[in-house]
Amino acid sequence: EAGVAQSPRYKIIEKRQSVAFWCNPISGHATLYWYQQILGQGPKLLIQFQNNGVVDDSQLPKDRFSAERLKGVDSTLKIQPAKLEDSAVYLCASSASGTAYEQYFGPGTRLTVT
Amino acid sequence: EDKVVQSPLSLVVHEGDTVTLNCSYEVTNFRSLLWYKQEKKAPTFLFMLTSSGIEKKSGRLSSILDKKELFSILNITATQTGDSAIYLCAVSAGTYKYIFGTGTRLKVLA
Fold it and tell me: What three-state secondary structure class fits B42?
């Protein structure tokens, strides 16, 4: 079974620039999560999709972050404009629908904002 | 506010030692508690616990949940250098929402 795919793996941008991350979940997984993991901290949920609908985006800084999940499969997370404090690893995860099963994580994207 | 607290924050042991990692939580609508191992980037799943008092075991790793006292422990016996990682505890609450602790950084010395 193919895992969760993410790209790019690394990104360096200057503050105030824009950046987008892509995630392809495990086939058949209806629930998709985006997390932000700052160095030394646990992952923080940014947004959760169930199919193509948003279940929880309470911790998403909506003035600069946006996310979409077209057709309930792939998802993109965008930051515009980026700030220094956005430097982190952005993890995408997916899980089977209907139950709180374990999540499967992608390799993450390490973002550095200079 | 939902929260998950892990202790210790970091731990250094020698190969062969036994370690116990702790995770306590306060959440509404508890569903399950999960343990992950994070070595480089992506956390990898270890255990999911939903019932109190039932030990989950995989090789040298084991875990148990106490839903009355709201905590879980992860034990690693006969530690090896390959066990060096960050161990994350996450609690599933509400509508499939996962809340992560800050993790315990374990370093095993040869």
Answer: coil
Q: Rounded to an integer, what distance in angstroms lies between the CA atom of residue B9 and that of residue A72?
A: 37
- The nearest alpha carbon in chain B to A103 belongs to B45
Pairing of strands A10-13, A109-113: parallel
Q: What size, in residues, is chain B? A: 110
Report how far residue A104's alpha carbon sits from residue B42's, in angstroms, rounded to the nearest whole number: 9
Q: What pLDDT, in 10s, does the model give residues B41-54?
A: 789 989 999 888 88
Contact criterion met (CB below 8 Å) for B44 and B73: no
Whether residue B69 has pLDDT greater than 70: yes
Q: Which of A43, A56, A100 has the CB atom closest to B32's CB atom?
A: A100
Residues A100, B7: Cα–Cα separation, whole Å: 24
Residue A35 pLDDT > 70:
yes
pLDDT of residue A70: 82
- CA A2 and chain centroid, separation: 18
Cβ–Cβ gap B34/A102 under 8 Å: yes
Calpha distance B15→B107 (Å, rounded): 10
Q: Could A106 and B42 be called an inter-chain contact, meaning their C-beta atoms sit closer than 8 Å?
A: yes
State the amino acid at position A80 in one-letter form: Q
CB within 8 Å: B96 and A100: yes
Helix (H, G, I), strand (E, B) or coil at A113: strand
